[in-house]
Specification:
A hairpin with a 2-residue loop joins strand 3 and strand 4. The strands form two sheets. A two-stranded antiparallel sheet has the order 1-2. The chain has a two-stranded antiparallel ribbon with strand order 3-4. The chain is mostly helical and 293 residues long. It contains eight helices and four strands. The radius of gyration is 24 Å and the shape is elongated.
Length: 293
């Protein structure tokens, strides 16, 4: 097997991990940043560290990617299949990140692997695709919806008589803990996807077998690339998630957009109320959404 093809495939897989990091980083930090529980820089650093830690906890996802979706291709055709799958997933990550679409990098990679396998004449393990990809894809949003509804209902009932100022401090700490847990799960899932692809590339090239444990260097480089991508790209994506759509909540007073470069921080809320000036002209004009004159 050509060593150059193996090296190129591994490098492309690591770049996919990098794009996965800055694509999904806003999921973990949006709530804690928009409520000012953490500064954007602190939230990104925490997410990067938790991604790094989560990558070393378990290897089930890596095994699914390397063995449970497609039959292991052989020779140069196998490297071509992995390369095509990774390029398709990277393209999807970049396009959806640019337009701020909350899409799944995991399903982009899995779909790329299945599509490349079909085009390359490699057998697809359809029962694995259905059981481990398609069914969870539809079940997970429903589970999240029901779980979020029940938890929010319980929180509102438990703290219905609590002091708002004291409860606010506790909820900020809880948001930090939940964001850390989200980032840890991100590392558990997304770093291991690339580990599975790299392991499959090593098996195709004859440098490893599926019975061997995942090499330590594979875990380290995949975890580092995911953490670097999370820290580097989170500023752009959280501007679409946390700094814009989640935190522009109107209160009494005026709501001012931050000037200058885009930031994840919420807009400043001025304590000085602004009232519309009297209109001296009898012509129609619109002030604060109401017609006057």
């Amino acid at each position: 097997m050509d060593t150059f093809a193996l090296v190129v495939t591994i490098l492309v897989a690591l770049f996919f991990t990098y794009t996965n990091g800055f694509h999904d980083s806003a999921n973990a930090i949006a709530t804690s940043v928009s409520t000012r529980a953490l500064t954007p820089r602190a939230a990104l650093a925490m997410a990067a560290v938790m991604n790094l830690a989560g990558a070393f906890l378990g290897s089930g996802v890596a095994k699914t990617v390397s063995e449970g979706l497609i039959e292991t291709p052989e020779g140069s055709k196998g490297m071509g299949i992995l390369f095509a799958a990774l390029i398709g997933a990277i393209t999807w990550n970049l396009v959806t990140w640019y337009f701020g679409l909350p899409s799944s990098s995991s399903h982009a990679l899995f779909g790329g692997m299945v599509g490349a396998a079909l085009a390359g004449g490699t057998d697809v393990i359809w029962h694995g695709v259905v059981d481990k990809i398609i069914v969870p894809m539809f079940v997970s949003p429903v589970v999240g919806l029901v779980g979020g509804y029940l938890v929010m209902t319980a929180i509102m009932w438990i703290f219905r008589k609590a002091n708002p100022h004291k409860a606010k401090r506790g909820f900020r700490i809880a948001q930090t803990v939940s964001a850390a847990g989200m980032a840890l799960g991100h590392g558990l899932q997304d770093a291991q996807k690339t580990m599975g692809v790299v392991v499959m590339a090593l098996v195709i090239s004859g440098h490893s077998t599926y019975k061997d444990p995942i090499p330590v260097w594979v875990k380290i480089v995949c975890a580092l690339m995911l953490s670097l991508g999370t820290y580097a790209g989170g500023g752009g994506s959280c501007g679409r998630w946390g700094g814009r759509s989640l935190s522009w909540i109107r209160r009494r007073g005026s709501l001012e957009r931050p000037r200058g470069r885009r930031s994840c921080s919420p807009p400043r809320i001025s304590s000085r109320r602004r009232f519309p000036r009297r209109m001296s002209s009898p012509r129609r004009s619109w002030v604060w959404g109401r017609r006057s004159g």
